[in-house]
Automatic annotation (TrEMBL):
InterPro entries assigned to the protein according to its UniProt record, in alphabetical order: BP-dependent_transpt_permease, MetI-like, MetI-like_sf, OppC_N
Keywords: Cell membrane, Membrane, Transmembrane, Transmembrane helix, Transport
Name this protein carries in UniProt: ABC transporter permease
Family statement: Belongs to the binding-protein-dependent transport system permease family.
Membrane topology: Multi-pass membrane protein
Signal peptide boundaries: none
Localization: Cell membrane
Lineage, highest ranks first: Bacteria, Pseudomonadati, Bacteroidota, Flavobacteriia, Flavobacteriales
An annotated GO cellular component: plasma membrane
Organism (species): Aquimarina algiphila
Statement: the UniProt record of this protein carries the keyword Transport: yes
Transmembrane segments: 21-44, 171-197, 204-226, 232-251, 286-313, 333-359
PROSITE patterns on file: ABC_TM1
Amino acid sequence: MPKAKSNSLSTLALQKFKKNFWGVLSFYFIVFCAIIAVFAYVFAPDDSQYANQMHLSIHSKPPGFKVKMLTIPSQDVSDQSFLDKVFFGEKNSDTELPIERYSFEDDVLKISPYSEGEVIELSKDIKLGRFPEGLTQEEIVKEYIADQRFILGTDKYGRDLLSRMLIGIRISFSIGFVAVLISLILGISLGAIAGYFGGKIDAMIMWLINVTWSIPTLLLVIAITLALGKGFWQVFIAVGLTMWVEVARVVRGQVLGVKQMQYVTAAKALGFTNFRIITRHILPNSLAPVIVISAANFAGAILIESGLSFLGIGAQPPMPSWGAMIKDHYSYIILGKAYLAIIPGLGIMSLVMAFMLIGNALRDALDVKN
């Protein structure tokens, strides 16, 4: 006997979602970005913490720039674990020097630092004792001198722009995930309580929602950030505390309709507690619009964090943030190096657009009327 085809609402919604080309494409793009965010230091050419290796002599170079790089090993031995290096970057104390030429004389490595047609500095002498013992000149060249290509160029401090972009994805994903989580916890809890109990409790929660809603989001985030102080987690909390009102209003409206259903009346007649009725019977049938709002809030959180970083009160240096990268380089637009601001701008735009498209696809898939 052939297996009966499932006609549950979740199965039908999944089938409709799979037919939405832009929704599926956005889903895979977000998954791809999430993998990069988790393993950013594995993919980044500069795997030092925060990709903060500065080379001022090669600042603001265009995409594809190539230079010979000398690495002088540090005498300090790092005791980092493998997992610590993979997820948080290498505590790299090695010195990297862009060079034009090098030669060996006795026990000295003579180098000419990179100057790009400017006044050529006097050559520097580096004693071979700075390198591990027992290495021949050929081995030193092979292991510590290499041609390095900067695929997206370098920023105004000579840092690898590609590495900063990859690690900056972490900030965007983290702010979106934490802010949406906070907004869901507060919004669903307060919205469900207001819609279910009604009366004075509903009036009080609605007053709180309306007051919070009346304050411009950016100003409220700035006020909370200044109260909690500048920093990584403070921004997360501040953004999350401003995004719960829309969730609460939608959940309240859904609960007001669902609580009139016969199965809720039957649950009350059976003596179930209010908590069980809300969590087991009302909320599971009220959360479809919340899923759509969460996707939009994720995109909104990324934009808010970028705006805060642009204003200087978001993620603090040397932590890479796409908003801060635009802030550092927007003046370069008129200097013929617009890519320094356009590249992080395209990153923000593509990630926000992906979440908005997946939100639209979820809205269409969860609309039972179609």
